[in-house]
Design goal:
Largest sheet: none
Distance between the termini: 95 Å
Shape: elongated
Helix content: over 70%
Number of strands: 0
Number of domains: 1
Oligomer: single chain
Strand content: under 5%
């Protein structure tokens, strides 16, 4: 009996190779040979992503606390409509900055992990500048709202 469909193992190698290439960057089961400082570098990368998580939690908590503090402050003093008007947008900005920081941390983790497997290390200058500037602007706006409400 002759088969109408023949299976050639060579035909599957190209799709498997493409699948393997696409999944190596985000593969959670990456195993590396511990030669030199490989383990130390990857453990440092994990500590860095945990610092991003901790920072994002602090920023999100700051946003929630800001809403609560400014809402309580404006409800105690009914004449302060300025604080009440800016409470939720400022708090939401803090939470969004926290989520943005978490996203940056996850992207940075996989970027560094992929770079370390090739023997490189990407520097995070732009990320630090962006988060620093946005946080500085948010702090200045909160301070400005609080000063404007006092006068």
């Amino acid at each position: 009996m002759q088969h109408l469909c023949h299976f050639h193992p060579e035909a599957m190698t190209l799709p498997l190779q493409l699948l393997k290439l696409g999944s190596t960057k985000y593969n959670p089961n990456l195993t590396l040979v511990n030669s030199g400082s490989v383990a130390r570098d990857h453990l440092a990368n994990e500590r860095t992503v945990l610092a991003y998580v901790r920072t994002s939690l602090a920023l999100s908590s700051m946003g929630v606390a800001l809403v609560q503090l400014l809402t309580l402050s404006s409800s105690a003093n009914e004449s302060n409509g300025v604080i009440h008007a800016y409470a939720r947008p400022l708090g939401a900005s803090g939470v969004m900055l926290g989520l943005f920081t978490l996203l940056l941390g996850v992207i940075r983790y996989f970027t560094v992990q992929t770079a370390l497997t090739t023997g490189n290390f990407p520097v995070a200058r732009v990320t630090v500048i962006i988060v620093g500037l946005v946080l500085t602007v948010l702090i200045c706006i909160v301070f400005g709202v609080l000063v404007a409400a006092r006068t």
